[in-house]
Amino acid sequence: MIAAELAMQWRRPRTLATLAALCCFSFALTLALALSGGDRLQRVGDIPLLIVPERSGGSIPVIALASTMKFFLPLAVAIFAGESIAGEAASGHLRYVLARPLSRERYLLAKLVVALLLSLIAVLLVPLAALAAGAAAFGWHPLTAIDGSASTALHTAVLGFSPGATLARMGVGTAYVAGGMLSIFSFAFLLSTLTAYPFAAVAGGVGLTLVSRVLNSDYLPGVAVLNRWMPNNDVDLWEHFFQRPAQTAGMSHFLLLQLIYAGICLTAAWWWFTRRDVLT
Amino acid sequence: MAVGTPMGAEGAAGDPVAAEGAPPILIEGLTKRLRRGVLAVDGLDMVVHRGQIVGLAGPNGAGKSVTMKVLLGLVRPSAGRVELFGEPARAGAAALARVGALVDGPGFVPHLSGLANLRLAARLPGARVDEQGIERAVALAGLGDALERPFRTYSHGMRYRLALAQALLGDPDLLLLDEPTTGLDPAHTLEIRRTVEHARERGATVLFSSHQLGEIERICTHAVVMRAGRLLAAGSVAELRGAHDSLEAAYLELVGAPGASREDPVGAR
User: How many beta-carbon pairs under 8 angstroms link A with B?
Assistant: First the structure.
């Protein structure tokens, strides 16, 4: 069931277009940095961390992941999760699948696994494409970074990371970002079981991302109490891996939060989908 | 004849075919209340025995489609007993392996070809379909080279032909066809009629809903008339026609003239 579902989703034009767009973003980013000379300091995310692309191709995946984790990746994840059931309902295929001797739990599980797999591929694709493009454009050398939080007027805190250390930090950072997409994924997946309009489910997932970004104490100090419970606010904490020593504060709370969102949304999705009337 | 009577004692005694095991369809006191309180089906009783070709007639909102969806386990009854071949009709029921359906129009994966869609259906749990079965379905669909094209490029008629081919995959013992001739030209309608007749020849049972009373009169052995979720009449086509010139005339007398005041549920078909 999972293999058939994966084969079907993999051939869906929207799947290929979404993955291709993410690849293209990494390539376009590399091209833009190369054309601009690559010798300028680039700020990574919201923390005072600066890297120079031309020193190492390893800097490109860092920049690419930091640039996509707050909108493009949540959008891709919302597409894969939101389309999964609602897309089938919209085409009418859902009622023919569910009219077979197939338990709804099993079908939901297959949909969940495949949508999760595609979402994971999306998250992995960005740094991998950026790594390939970065290495081709700038070579494969130690990454040099400037930690603004450790620098003073008289001292610039320059950090060096070997290619192996860069890869290891990127690997853990990518895993963290993938985990950080779980809340958006689960919410869009829940909506996908509730509606026959895939656009509504995708928009819901993206909407949750935007709400999370808006209700952020960086912009609205009055909502600081909500900050720790917003599903997407702390997805950028992995950037602290490129400081020395690496900072991990807040990461376990964020990942636990993802599990809470996922637990609530996926339980609700299971409850509703196994009981709903399929009228469309 | 047992259509329209709970448990169909008459059918069990008088029809030697009916005596073979549980009837393909048994509905007792089926009630379905949709959201917002719409009563789609209201205390429906119906038994369809093996080999019967039953026409399901009624105006829009009569509850025909909802009844079929309950049989397919897509919709949960609010009350009543619904069985397929003696097994409760619910989501994932093993008896669904013996059922082919065309309900609410075709439903396929738009980006896959017609052939890929048929193969996908043949791989679903419970589908007892081998390569020969797929080839028979391909021949029945009669789409030629178009079978290799994405489903989204198909015309209305092509979509219905593919849907009918899918419904017949694995030669199901029970065929549920919900308005299969909607919007089709006479040639396609004739094909569907032949398909139903062929299913009847091999001993399958068919529940066939249509607004075309002439179709029901030509194809079906029995008919059921519903209105506002309730059963108005049931019996053999000859019994329902009675002294009227046609089944349509009898139907209009039963259901009433168009525009007459009725309590048809809005949004339920």
Answer: 85
